[in-house]
Amino acid sequence: MLRGSSNILVRANRLHNCGYGLAFVLGDPHSVSTAVDNTIIEPKFNGIDVIGDSPQLHRNQVLRAHAYSLHVEDFQPPGGSKVTSQPFLDNNNFGSSPTSGATTAVRPGS
After folding, report:
1. DSSP string covering 53-93, please?
2. Could you give the C-alpha distances from 26 to 4, 18, 23, 43, 44, in angstroms and in order?
3. Contact between residue 67 and residue 45 where contact means Cβ atoms under 8 Å apart
4. Under a CB-based contact definition with an 8 Å cutoff, are residues 62 and 21 in contact?
5. Which of 61, 64, 75, 81 has the fewest Cβ atoms surrounding its Cβ within 10 A?
6. pLDDT tens per residue, the chain (110 residues)?
7. Which of 31, 52, 47 is nearest to 92 (CA)?
8. Model pLDDT, residue 96
9. 3-state SS, residue 23
10. Gap between the Cα atoms of 72 and 66, Å rounded
11. pLDDT at position 100, please?
C-alpha cells in the first residue's frame, strides 16, 4: 500500500495468491506515483485499489481477481473537500475480472 506517497515507482513485481494486490491511497497530485509491468495473480480481493489518488498504471496485469481487477473510488473526509481519483491507464490487462470505475466517496475507517 502506498499511502500519502509521491513520485514512487513500483515496477516488475509478481504477486500471487495474496489478499490484495496494490493500493494507492491519498497520494500527492503534483508528484504522482507509477506502477509499471507488475503481475498480480488471483488476489483474494481487489487487484489494484485507487482511493483518492491518481497514479499512472502502465502494462500491469491482474489475473483472476476474486473481486475487482481495478477498483477506483474518490475520498471524502468528514467536513473536508472530496479528493478525486483519476488514474492514468495505459496498456493494462485486467483479465476476465470486473473493473470498477466508481466515484463513490469513501469515508475514513470504511
Report:
1. ---EEES-EEES-SS-SEEEEEE--TTS--B----EEES-B
2. 5, 22, 10, 22, 23
3. yes
4. yes
5. 81
6. 999 999 999 999 999 999 999 999 999 989 999 999 999 999 999 999 999 999 999 999 999 999 999 999 999 999 999 999 999 999 999 987 777 765 444 444 44
7. 47
8. 75
9. strand
10. 16
11. 73
Question: Measuring CA to CA, which residue among 50, 48, 35, 40 is closest to residue 85?
Answer: 50
CA distances to 27, 38, 84, 85 from 32, rounded to whole Å, are: 7, 17, 13, 12
**In the structure grid, which three cell numbers stand for residue 110, read together?**
470504511
Q: How many residues are there in the chain?
A: 110
For residue 36, list its beta bridge partners. Answer: 11, 58
Give me the residue label for grid cell 479528493.
Answer: 83
Which amino acid, one-letter code, is at 39? Answer: T
